[in-house]
Amino acid sequence: MNANQTMFTDFIILGLSNNPKLKTPLFFFLLLIYVFTLAGNISIICVSQLDKTLHTPMYFFLQNLSFLDICYTSTTMPKMLQALIVERKVISFAGCVTQMYFFLTFVGTECVLLCVMSYDRCLAICYPFRYCIIMNRKVCLSLSSFSWISGLINSIVHTFFTFHLNFCDHNKINYFYCDIPPLLSISCKDTSINEILLLSIGMFIGWTPFLCIIVSYLCVILTILKIKSTDGRQKAFSTCASHITVVVIYFGSVLFSYVRPISRYSLSKDRVISVLYSVVSPMMNPLIYTLKNNDVKNAMRRQFMFKQRS
Predict the structure, then answer these.
(1) What are the structural domains, with CATH classification, of the chain?
(2) pLDDT by residue (tens digit) across 296-305?
(3) pLDDT at residue 164 above 70?
């Protein structure tokens, strides 16, 4: 970091709302979402661990997804809640670096992990007899590790280049957490390299997994159409329905937030989109997988009945 890079040690986060009448109800509403998010994702991890019928590659990746949702919600939500109840909404420079680093790690990892999960569903439906041989434990661990490593590399590059910008006397972030677009908007240095990195790495970490997901599900649809039994088609599609719903919500908001020219950013409007993938998506994932997945619902019933008998 250059000696004259910044003259301050803190950033001021303006938060979601400056309306005093909205702060208290918004605080309790977001707190409820956070608690529900933690409870839902922890429940999926516990049930998947305890119920032997869920010891399959699909639920191994689902546990990874739930863990990711817990992590990156916990990266932003506590500070977001604090900003609604304290007068001075401050985050230290080091805190801002740390928050953005971990947030981008989890967001990037989830993009690749959702792609891995679509590949898993594609193999399970298109090659059911070879599925267990192909998707063995070693392959599952390798694909999971690849997802995490991709997220880490994505985060290291963006965090390094973002915090080597000059911010001069601009330390007010018109956002509710430290992220790339709001930080680029307050820099008094040329951000063209950062914008190129954002678009180019975004192609790898965002668009490439998304296009791979589309290809995977095209293969799945073609295979499902060949199934003669109506029940067979419904069962095959039901195993993918939850994942498709999650992909649409998550990628729709993430790609809109990051993979476009910086000149098209509007922070006031983008805050709404950011809430979708940083707050709503982690809360919805356990609900989607529970409501649309009979295996998870049955496993939860078995565990609940077992606890009652005990």
Answers:
(1) 10-309 (1.20.1070.10)
(2) 777 777 766 6
(3) yes
